[in-house]
Design goal:
With about 625 residues, the chain is an alpha/beta fold. It folds into five domains: about 60 residues, no CATH class; about 80 residues; about 120 residues, no CATH class; about 120 residues, 2-Layer Sandwich (Nucleotidyltransferase, domain 5), CATH 3.30.420; about 90 residues, no CATH class. About 50% of the residues lie in helices and about 10% in strands. It has 26 helices and eleven strands. Helix 12 packs across helix 14 and helix 18 packs parallel to helix 21. The longest helix is centred in the N-terminal third of the chain and has 29 residues.
């Protein structure tokens, strides 16, 4: 009957009754129409495999065989997808949080073993009943967890999660804002938000304390005076009146005189100074072309600020990883230009739009090249989480943001790439059809962890040691001769010998079997670099680019939006490409050039001092 539950307790007094209990279990499965076997953790996986080996599996076409093969481990469903507010993903912790209770206060798998040993020595019925009750309550907790996961996955509940109307769960990307340094305060109680706003430090010093404290009043007045933009003009530029429209060659209509002041800076060899220029010009309107004429190009696209000040601010934000409010404070302190934090944000957005095509050229050069290092890293934004993908070569780096870690983005971005892809073992990269080299540093770290986790597994230690000896010889050749195929290809015989050795040997420990399977699974991707010139055996190029992103990420501190992080990544792509190409990032920005390759050809030698202003 739908909604009903039947419990079966299969008890074996000793090893002689074990086969009978296993047979009864298979009989229960066979009597159920379309059964689904759900368990929690790897213990049951090991148990089912051992019982099948010990007493034989059912016939291949019988329902129990299909059920055992398709058994669902609920831990794999929860892991890295659902986060309960517990210290672990153990059934006792998760079940207790969901309201499940156990008759015994100290109920655990360890205590169940103790109860069993005591029962075997004493035969006390109470101990047997404790075991049966414990297992039944575990099954009840498993049912509760399963129902909770089914409820979280249904479409109606998903809509509630996305709308934020569910009071029991929240999407991880929506909770990312809680990890920011300054979470916003909201309340349903009338007046609480206004009271909280009135308690802010700046508000109280500027609006409350200065009414009773004379020193604070003088400090506030001095600060407001220092924030005013200095208007002393260093230079005046007068543009001649425009006689003809450059498009239609007709005389435009005069609309009146124009005047505008641009706030900028000038570089000398060993310093920087403020430079304010006032432009005088005439504004015209061409009736035939329907366009305004006469406005100097210096006003586009940076607004009130000159190009050099804009590029210096971008240099501070991207290469020096300075927060936007710090940039505004520094510019105002040294140059008195009255730059606001919001204006720094707009400067960044305009600069990113100006250089967006530059990142396209960088990616195009990578895709047409012979080598790409790829990696990805999580990024916390203001209201969601996402991922930043890094594609790097020896001279170029490109960063891109996506809201998910799905491999469709990589497949679409690198679909035309025919060179060698160096990456970690994330399965998304396997969708590409190009030759691949897996990062052996990642593999070594995993193997080292396996050896430390199984200190008495001699089979595992022997297998890992054999691989280490093979790789050590290869690395010594790389250190001596570089990444040259004619020297590295000699090691292919050793690689083939290594795989023949592990194929012949039968490994018995579970850890050794997993390592062997991993070697065999990636056999065609572990030593690809031996057959190519200039292909590294690790992913350090991409990981170094990720470190640059990590430094910038600390300055952003989770306060950026999707559009904001995309602007950062456009500019960071240019910054890191300049570094990888041996160019100075600030020099490139001040040059006005958009093509890094063309700039590199013209300025091959990297400057070590500040550029001299040509004006």
């Amino acid at each position: 009957m739908a909604g009903s539950a039947i419990q079966h307790s299969l008890w074996a007094d000793g090893p002689a009754d074990e086969k009978r209990a296993w047979t009864d279990f298979l009989g229960v499965l066979a009597a159920i129409d379309k059964p689904v076997l759900i368990h929690y953790g790897s213990f049951e996986t090991t148990f089912l495999r051992r019982m099948s080996e010990r007493y034989g599996e059912p016939t291949a076409d019988s329902p129990p065989t299909k059920v055992l093969a398709a058994a669902i481990n609920l831990v794999s469903v929860i892991f890295a997808q659902i986060y309960f507010p517990t210290y672990s993903n153990g059934l006792k912790d998760v079940g207790a949080w969901l309201g499940c209770k156990w008759s015994s206060v100290n109920a655990s798998g360890t205590h169940s073993i103790i109860w069993r040993m005591r029962w075997e020595s004493s035969g006390e019925p109470a101990l047997k009943q404790s075991l049966i009750t414990y297992n039944a309550e575990d099954c009840q907790a498993l049912q509760t967890v399963t129902e909770t996961l089914v409820r979280l996955g249904c479409s109606d509940h998903r809509a509630g999660l996305e709308n934020g109307t569910d009071s029991t769960a929240v999407l991880a990307e929506q909770s990312a804002s809680k990890a920011t340094l300054w979470p916003s305060f909201s309340s349903t109680v009338d007046g609480f938000e206004a009271i909280n706003k009135a308690a802010r430090w700046d508000f109280q010093r500027d609006k409350v304390y200065i009414r009773t404290d004379k020193l604070l009043r003088r400090i506030s007045e001095a600060r407001r005076a220092s924030e005013k933009r200095i208007t002393r003009v260093n230079q005046e530029m007068i543009y001649e009146r425009q006689a003809l429209c450059p498009e239609c060659k007709k005389k435009p209509e005069f609309c009146g005189p124009g005047k505008k002041t641009i706030y900028d800076i000038r570089f000398s060899r060993y310093g920087i100074r403020r430079w304010v220029v006032t432009y005088h010009f005439s504004v015209y309107w061409c009736r035939r072309c329907h366009r305004s004429l006469g406005v100097p190009d210096e006003f586009k696209p940076w607004g009130l600020f000159g190009r050099r000040l804009v590029m210096f601010s971008i240099y501070q934000a991207i290469e020096l990883c300075m927060p936007q409010h710090s940039i505004a404070q520094e510019v105002n302190r040294f140059f008195g230009l009255g730059l606001q934090q919001g204006e720094v944000h707009r400067i960044k957005a305009r600069a990113a739009e100006y250089y967006r095509d530059t990142r396209v050229r960088i990616l195009d050069k990578l895709v047409k090249g012979d080598l790409i290092h790829a990696d990805e890293t999580p990024m916390v934004l203001k209201r969601k989480r996402g991922y930043v993908w890094v594609f790097a070569g020896f001279h170029e780096v490109a960063y891109f943001f996506t809201e998910t870690r799905e491999g469709a983005f990589v497949e679409q971005t690198l679909k035309d790439f025919k060179g060698v892809l160096v990456s970690d073992f994330y399965a998304a990269y396997d969708s590409l059809s190009c030759p691949q080299q897996k990062c052996l540093i990642h593999l070594i770290r995993d193997l080292n962890d396996d050896v430390l986790s199984h200190p008495y597994d001699e089979e595992l230690k022997e297998l890992v040691t054999t691989f280490a000896a093979l790789l050590r010889d290869i690395v010594q050749t790389v250190d001596r001769w570089g990444l040259k195929r004619r020297f590295l290809s000699r090691h292919m015989a050793g690689v083939e010998r290594f795989y023949r050795t592990i194929a012949k040997k039968v490994y018995r420990s579970e850890a050794s079997v997993k390592v062997k399977e991993r070697f065999e699974k990636h056999q065609n991707k572990l030593f690809t670099f031996l057959n190519y010139d200039g292909v590294p055996w690790n992913n350090n190029n991409a990981e170094h680019a990720v470190k640059a992103l990590a430094r910038l990420r600390r300055a952003i501190v989770g306060l950026s939006t999707t559009a904001g992080i995309e602007e950062y990544l456009v500019l960071l792509s240019i910054c890191q490409t300049c570094k990888y190409s041996g160019l100075d990032f600030l020099d490139f920005l001040l040059s006005g050039e958009k093509d890094i390759g063309a700039y590199a050809q013209e300025h091959g030698k990297r400057r070590t001092s500040a550029p001299v202003d040509p004006f």
